[in-house]
Structure formats: C-alpha cells, structure tokens
C-alpha cells in the first residue's frame, strides 16, 4: 500500500512508523526540513521537503499512485486543502484529515470527507477513563461517538440474556469470550459467570449502559 503523510509532527511520525513497520510504502511531506529529522535516521520511507498541497510536491511523493493520503499537519486549513486536493483532483481512494476544531471536522464529515478531531476524540477518551473505571474501552470510532468496550459480566447479569443488554441503535453486544474462546451470541444467549462481553456503544448511551450493568451511582 502506498501512503502519503503530510506533516512530520508527533502524529505524522508515529503514523509513518506504524505503516512502515507493517510493510507499507510511505512518503512524508513537510515544509520544514528540520521537522523531517523527527523521523528515525533509518526511516525506510521517502522524505520530501515542500508544501503538502503543492501539485509538484505531491507528484514527487507519488500521489498519482497513492492508495491513501493523511493530512496530519498542525494546521486545520492546510490539512483541509491538502485532503480536498488528494480526494477531488488526484482521486486518492482513502483520504483522512486531522482537524483540531471539532465543529469543522463535523462539517467536512457531512461532505463525505474522513476527518479525525483529536480534540473531540481526546476529550471523549478522557471522559471514558474518568467516569467508567469498570469498563475497558479498547477502541473509539469516528471522533469518539461510538466505542468498543470490554467488561466481565457482573453478577446481576449472570443467567440473563443478551437481549436484556441490547438497545437498538445504542448498545449492541458484538461478541462474548467464554473460557478463552470467543463467539457471536444471539439475542437469546445467556450470560454465564466469568464471561467477558464485547459491546459497541454510542457515547451518549454510556450512562444507560452502566445502569443496565448495575454500575451507575446508586445502581
């Protein structure tokens, strides 16, 4: 997979490292040559000095053959411009823009662009850690609107069924791990002592989920 990353700050460098380690072909663009030194000296990808939305720079990075483009600089404006050029002009199949302003991220998401608001995601993740110590959030989707959580079945749920923990469009039980083996349950599957349940949950439904589990205050 050919991936172009604009921005060699902490996010861009970490992303480049992960992708290279997975065997992908990576090119990193930054207008500041010194910023590219953030990449390891033995970085196997391509380092390009230039503006990430300049046509010649993008062509040098191989955007005509790119499978993905990540706009991860520290500027929302630059990220949006670069992402739109990659998406609309060069028709890169997968384009993601990092935005600090969650309001702008939502606007562009509605226009069909993939955006990540680190501000919103970070706030949601911190809230989860502060308020849901009993629940292990292993992944967040979008800007934190949906999370995948793990939790051991509490005593109150032992013997009850999956349907008792399911709320349409808000809480969906994805899988159950029982004695080390995972399976996809039906609505009629019963919970047993020691089960680990894996649940997709809407952020706004977290308190409702905790109430169903008997973990809410006073619950």
Describe the overall structure.
This protein is an alpha/beta fold. The protein folds into two domains: 2-120, Rossmann fold (3-Layer(aba) Sandwich), CATH 3.40.50.720; 132-213, Regulator of K+ conductance, C-terminal domain (Alpha-Beta Plaits, 2-Layer Sandwich). It has helices at residues 10-21, 55-60, 76-89, 102-110, 118-131, 206-213; strands at 2-6, 25-30, 46-49, 68-71, 94-99, 114-117, 136-141, 146-152, 171-178, 181-183, 196-202. Strands 3-2-1-4-5-6 form a six-stranded parallel sheet, sandwiched between helices. The radius of gyration is 21 Å and the shape is elongated. The N and C termini lie far apart (49 Å).
Layout of secondary structure:
Blueprint: E1 2-6, H1 10-21, E2 25-30, E3 46-49, H2 55-60, E4 68-71, H3 76-89, E5 94-99, H4 102-110, E6 114-117, H5 118-131, E7 136-141, E8 146-152, E9 171-178, E10 181-183, E11 196-202, H6 206-213
Parallel strand pairs: 1-2, 1-4, 2-3, 4-5, 5-6
Antiparallel strand pairs: 7-8, 8-11, 9-10, 9-11
Spatial order of the strands in the main sheet?
Answer: 3-2-1-4-5-6
SSE arrangement, N to C: EHEEHEHEHEHEEEEEH
Instruction: Look up the CATH topology of the largest domain.
Output: Rossmann fold
Rough shape? elongated
The second-level CATH architecture of the largest domain is 3-Layer(aba) Sandwich
Binned, the helix content reads 25-40%
Oligomer: single chain
Features:
single chain; 219 residues; alpha/beta; Rossmann fold; Alpha-Beta Plaits; 2 domains; six-stranded parallel sheet; five-stranded antiparallel sheet; 6 helices; 11 strands; 29% helix; 27% strand; elongated
